[in-house]
Design a protein that fits this description.
The chain is mainly alpha-helical and 264 residues long. The protein has one domain. The protein has nine helices and six strands; from the N terminus they run E-E-H-H-H-H-H-H-E-E-H-H-E-E-H. A two-stranded antiparallel ribbon has the order 1-2. Strands 3-4 form a two-stranded antiparallel ribbon. A hairpin with a 2-residue loop joins strand 5 and strand 6. Helix 8 packs antiparallel against helix 9. The longest helix is centred in the N-terminal third of the chain and has 26 residues.
């Protein structure tokens, strides 16, 4: 494994950047598929995708800056220099969701409907992102002497490939989220299902990570227990608004027209 895929002159192309770009492209493609199934127009879905991509890139950079404040303090314009890397997957997710919320709000469509669509397709792109983590050599697992262990370049000890464990769980449990999405009758049910699923994935992956313990569990596992409990209770008890249905049966929803001021 080597974090650099190839170089073009002095420009180094990292595997992490390639996989993150592929994850974004996959997310856009899947979002269009589920959006079309819900009856939304292609031009609107393309617009939402653009907002999500911009939000995802900004979120990834801001999250990276928060984890490396020394670089941001030394040069505030570092956040604009994409060549220096520094893309955090969780920041990309939250930034993309914020872009989704803003675009749906601007169009007058239900916010939970947009989040349901976005979160329904999130796990496959997350799996690709974890492959990027493996190639980059970050988010490593615990030291092990088992046959599962891999040795990173420049090290002498084997570690669990926890990134691939998590990627496998992402793909294994994705059908459950899709099942909720396609059979849900109320907005927000897919959001709850995705939060519960990711909490389960993260709780399991933490057993193979080298993170500090808070009693019998890690901090992330305690958080996962809380998120899973709240999400499952909401999924079972929440009586949100009915799932949005386009007006006119099979006709795609239309962006509401603003009232124009004029002479009567």
């Amino acid at each position: 494994m080597h974090p650099i895929a190839f170089s073009i002159g002095s420009l180094q192309i990292h595997w992490y950047g390639i996989t993150l770009s592929a994850a974004m492209a996959l997310g856009v493609g899947l979002f269009h598929r589920v959006g079309a199934r819900r009856g939304y127009r292609d031009d609107f879905l393309a617009d939402v995708s653009l907002w999500m991509l911009v939000g995802g890139i900004l979120g990834a950079r801001i999250d990276s800056a928060l984890h490396g404040l020394h670089r941001f303090e030394e040069n505030p314009f570092w956040i604009l220099n994409l060549r220096e890397g520094g893309f955090a997957i969780h920041g990309a997710i939250f930034g993309g969701m914020l872009g989704n919320i803003l675009r749906f709000r601007k169009s007058g469509y239900p916010l939970l409907e947009g989040l349901d669509m976005a979160l329904a397709i999130l796990l496959p792109p997350m799996a690709l992102g974890r492959v990027g983590c493996l190639l980059q050599g970050c988010c490593v697992g615990k030291i092990t002497d088992s046959a599962w262990g891999i040795t990173y370049p420049g090290t002498t000890v084997a570690r669990y490939p926890v990134q691939m464990f998590e990627a496998g769980l992402d793909l294994l449990l994705w059908p459950l989220v899709l099942l909720v999405f396609f059979r849900s009758t109320r907005q927000g049910q897919t959001v709850c299902a995705m939060l519960a699923t990711y909490a389960l994935i993260r709780f399991t992956a933490e057993f193979f990570r080298e993170t500090p313990m808070w009693g019998p569990l890690t901090r992330e596992q305690w958080g996962s227990v809380g998120i899973f409990t709240v999400a499952m209770l909401a999924l079972l008890l929440y009586k949100g608004p009915p799932r949005y249905k386009p007006e006119g049966g099979d006709e795609p929803p239309r962006i509401p027209n603003k009232k124009k001021k004029g002479r009567s």
